[in-house]
Amino acid sequence: MSPETEKPSAESLITEARRVLEHAHAPYSRFPVGAALLGESGRVFLAVNVENASYGLSVCAERAAVFAAVAAGERRFAALAVATDTDRPTPPCGACRQVLREFVADLPIHLAGRHGAIETRRLTELLPHAFTPEPDSRRQPFKG
Question: Of 8, 54, 76, 108, which has the fewest beta carbons less than 10 angstroms from its beta carbon?
């Protein structure tokens, strides 16, 4: 991405996450999720949740987006949009939060429900005491 090119806005990321939502494969939970992950390069990686009859083999949209980005060579992220078909916006699950934390210390996460409901949270707010790749973080006692 060249310096004069603008990175996608939160609204455009949400639009993309909502657009891809219809491709989710969620026959068991009936909880489709779409994700649009913005890399620092300006590239956007889209993904959906894909469920499996063997539930443990299912993958969330947020992790699928991270994995697609990593496979494409992206390791740094600027924002994430998550769209669900719920009245209230739904944040990523704990596993997705932890996977995101592997690559970025903090991240704006735009959450979109149906009927225009939108919230923005920070990864540090959603995962305040993350297990991090920095060795010292694993030895620090919890000071709640």
Answer: 54
Taking the model in full, what pTM does it have? 0.89
d(CA 123, CA 142): 18
**Among 40, 62, 119, 134, which one carries the catalytic annotation?**
62
Cα separation, 17 vs 4, in Å, equals 25
Q: What are phi and psi of 71, to 5 degrees?
A: -60, -25
Q: Which of 1, 66, 8, 70 is nearest to 37 (CA)?
A: 66
Give the confidence band of 7 by pLDDT, cuts at 50, 70, 90: confident
Instruction: Determine the 3-state secondary structure of 82 from DSSP.
Output: strand
Map out the domains of the chain as residue ranges: 10-138
CATH number for the segment(s) 10-138 = 3.40.140.10
